[in-house]
Amino acid sequence: MIGAAKGVIRSMLCDGQYKSEVIPVDYAINGLIVIAFETATANPKPEQIPVYNITCAEKKKLPWETVMNLGKKLGYEYPFEAGVWYPDGGITTSKLYHTINVILFHWLPAYLIDFLLLCAGQKRFMVRVQTRISTGLDVLQFFTTRAWDFKSENYEKLYTNLSEKEKKIFNMDTDSIDDEEYLKVGILGGRQYIMKEPLSTLPKARKQLKALYILDRTVKTLLLGFLLYFIFSRTGLLDVMLESFGLAK
Fold this sequence. Notes:
By secondary structure, the chain is mostly helical. The protein has ten helices and two strands, in the order αβααβααααααα.
């Protein structure tokens, strides 16, 4: 989410219809503690080793497309300070389309920025950052391009066996999670504690986001206009259009 919000990640291989396996880390830690307790105190010991999939209940699993769209919406409401470009990436299942996007919007800008930094005598970093991002995406995309079916019945039973006091201390109830609030907290947390951007900079960041939006649309319009002009002039369509408007020389 941080990479996308900073305009660094513009494309990701992901089937939006597959369901995400996302759970808050404190719920996962609580689950690990309860599993260890259950394993140590079980009497008699089970004949087969029990398997616990720490994941949310099936009805709580959101499609990746929903997660991405919600994350983008919240990213616009609570933007990070100006990044590489306007955050407007997307997901796709086409490896060819993804590869083209990665070359055009990941690697070319990274090399261009590093070249400008080199000319200015500054330390280069964008290619290194993009390499780390690509490595991370390769790992994540293994999961986002495949359908997974992790059953969580055993994990859910652990929570029902806890006392009311234990349930408050070791909360594992994913049904109570507000998905939008969870992502919002994730974005604001990443903003403050990873990027070191205090909440007081939000008004400034929103102005920067508007400026980046105008710049993004302007550049894309100019590039599209140049491309169309080049194609029309090469194919003779430009002369035909000029003649139809009575503008031909």
